[in-house]
Amino acid sequence: MADRGLWVYCVARAGDPLPERLPGVDPGHATERIEQGTLAALVSGVALAEYGEEALQRNLNDLAWLERVARAHEAALERALAGATLVPLRLCTIFDDAAGVRAMLDERGAELSAALDALAGREEWTVKLLVDRDALERAARADASGPEADAAAGSGAAYMLGRRRDREVREHAGRLAAGLAGEAHERLREAAVAAVLGRPQNRRLSGHDGDMVLNAAYLVERGAVPRLRALVAELEARHGGLGARLEMRGPLPPYNFVPEGAPA
Amino acid sequence: MSEQALAHQDVALVDLIDRLLGSGVVIAGDITLSVADVDLVYVGLRALVSSVATAVGEEPLLPR
């Protein structure tokens, strides 16, 4: 039985350059290309002792292992992206040998070609919108100004009223945040040919400051990237009072804009 | 605006895992690791993510 398999990073057009002879996810094996018809796959060998079926079940549950492999996969994709339109594959797509990869390129060729056509000349960019919760609540409080809060100071009624107002302020701040996220997304998609909304991330995990209210991906014609950038700057300037910060990243391997087909 | 160059940037792990496991073309390789297994790991990771959020008592800002 073979002791290595082939890890596939992405599929591109056969004529496009791919980053070959660089360290792969398994550092002992370099990247190489496998062509079949009009398509090419970027692959590298992986030791089955670490990437075989049983080992994978175990390793995928080891966060440190998963992180190392995910970063290596992403790094190869980003290098490939510099020279080619590509369809990125899900992490841990592994074949027995080159014949298996070629068979896959044949079987899924039509779907992969269509995906490459749809992505040609376009780039995936992500935009995260972060706001300052205190600034939003201040704005919400200003909107809800009224004299009754102090009217019966010290009484139980005032306490209940204060509680209610605090809750209303929080709810209003949430609506302001949602409105801001909606406005930003509507504007940004004007510059895009397609858009995907993701879940806003928790700050403890992603390490950002502020509350994330929009986590979106946009597929943009290469020539429209400056427009996207200008919109981001404009939105940030307009809503600076609410602590709005927009983080724009790209171009990224277009994971959000390839068909999520069922396995062949 | 804080737009950073991609190269050598320390991308948040959650972001990365989200992209690499949660989206993209699914092609069944010879070594399966079935899609269901990947989903299990992914779901497990997301559960971890949620439990951390709960543990620190963060209330979501956005109305749900």
Notable characteristics:
heterodimer, A: 264 residues, alpha+beta, Alpha-Beta Plaits, 2 domains, 5-stranded antiparallel β-sheet, 4-stranded antiparallel β-sheet, 43% helix, 24% strand, B: 64 residues
Give an overview in words.
The complex is a heterodimer of chains A (264) and B (64). Chain A is α+β, with helices and mostly antiparallel strands and 264 residues long. Chain A has helices at residues 48-51, 53-59, 63-81, 98-107, 109-119, 133-143, 156-189, 203-206, 225-238, and strands spanning 4-13, 31-36, 39-47, 86-88, 94-95, 122-131, 194-197, 211-221, 245-252. Chain A is 43% helix and 24% strand. In chain A, the strands form two sheets. In chain A, strands 1, 2, 3, 4 and 5 form a five-stranded antiparallel beta sheet that branches. Chain A has a four-stranded antiparallel beta sheet with strand order 7-8-6-9. In chain A, helix 6 (133-143) crosses helix 7. The longest helix of chain A is centred in the middle third of the chain and has 34 residues, at 156-189. Chain B is mainly alpha-helical. In chain B, helix 1 runs antiparallel to helix 2. The interface between A and B is large, with 78 and 43 residues.
| Oligomeric assembly | heterodimer
Q: How does the major sheet of chain B shape up? A: none
- Kindly provide the radius of gyration of chain B, computed on alpha-carbon positions and rounded to a whole number of angstroms: 16 Å
Strand content of chain A: 15-25%
Q: Give unreliable regions of chain B as ranges.
A: 1-11, 51-57
Largest interface: A-B, 78 and 43 residues
Q: What is the straight-line distance between the termini of chain B?
A: 28 Å
CATH H level, superfamily name of the largest domain in chain A:
ACT domain
| Overall radius of gyration of chain A | 24 Å
- The SS-based structural class of chain B is mainly alpha
Number of helices of chain A: 9
Please, how many domains of chain A? 2
Mean pLDDT of chain A: 90
List how many beta strands of chain A DSSP finds: 9
